[in-house]
Amino acid sequence: MMIRVESLAREFSGKGAPEPVHALRGVSFEVAPGELFGVLGPNGAGKTTLVRILSTLLTPTSGTAQIGGLDVVTDAMRLRRRLGVVFGGERGLYDRLTAVDNLQFAAELYGVHRREQKRRIGDVLELVGLRSKDRARVETFSRGMRQRLHIARALLHEPDVLFLDEPSNGLDPVAARELRDLVRSLRDAGTTILLTTHHMFEADQLCSRLAVVVDGGIVEMGTPAAIKGRADVGRTFTFADYHGVVRDRAVLDALPGAIDVSDEALDGYVRWSVRTAAGSAVDAAMIARTLDVPPDHVVGEPATLEDAYVAIVSGAP
């Protein structure tokens, strides 16, 4: 395994605080080489604390974590040369310097040999799509361009593992899509990545496995499909009514487990939606029988990762 975490815990205590704050509570998981592993959770759940411990910026209170066989505490100095870290909204670039100058400074800090610096800087700028902006000052960059430059900087020394802590935070939809494409290309090239995010679509698209963290502990872990399948969530069924089949919405309201019925008048028809509660016996066939229409006229929309996430977080103790 590239990353192995066992019973990792971290407490914070401040002056005058009656009790310590448990940011992490016995977290355990493994990440295989080349895997893109996602960590989801509400604000304050412990995601950034986890990334800071794994990237050797913070020591755990108890438990162990190893990356590539090196301990994050006892082998921290050796390990840092093998890790790349990007925090969302991070400030660490020099605005009045060009992209190349920023990366050259970072290359010196990372210990990249001077004979390799020019090649590596060119390679990472090409990878993140900033080769044409290599001589532009960073103060002229958009937020999305800055985030891509942060990733370029994190990749300069060819790390074994890349940590991305909410990298798309605050990006507009176009910049967020470009960032997802970049992360996907890194994943496909075999980079081991640990990603924290609040964007469920992003996690569903990119991650091979996910861990949901609530109050410092992992409450669910598995593939996105498995998590969506295990979560106790309701479903939404839709029906396009072209001929006025639904004459009384009370018929739909009376379906067992129906918690919301809505209609939308569109061009030449009415689109009906029936949202059901978790565990409801309602399915497309039942609705079709109720309306006396062919079964394929009613479409059941599968639960999304966001649906599953909300159900998991809301039901966590």
TrEMBL record:
SUPFAM superfamilies: P-loop containing nucleoside triphosphate hydrolases (SSF52540). Pfam families: ABC_tran (PF00005). Its main location: membrane. It is a peripheral membrane protein. It is found in: Cell membrane. The keyword ATP-binding applies. Keywords: Antibiotic resistance, ATP-binding, Nucleotide-binding, Transport. Residues 3-240 form the ABC transporter domain. GO terms for cellular component: plasma membrane. The keyword Manganese does not apply. Gene3D superfamilies: P-loop containing nucleotide triphosphate hydrolases. InterPro entries: AAA+_ATPase, ABC_transporter-like_ATP-bd, ABC_transporter_ATP-binding, P-loop_NTPase. One of its GO terms (biological process) is response to antibiotic. One of its GO terms (molecular function) is ATP hydrolysis activity. PANTHER family: ABC TRANSPORTER ATP-BINDING PROTEIN, ABC TRANSPORTER, ATP-BINDING PROTEIN. This is Daunorubicin ABC transporter ATPase.
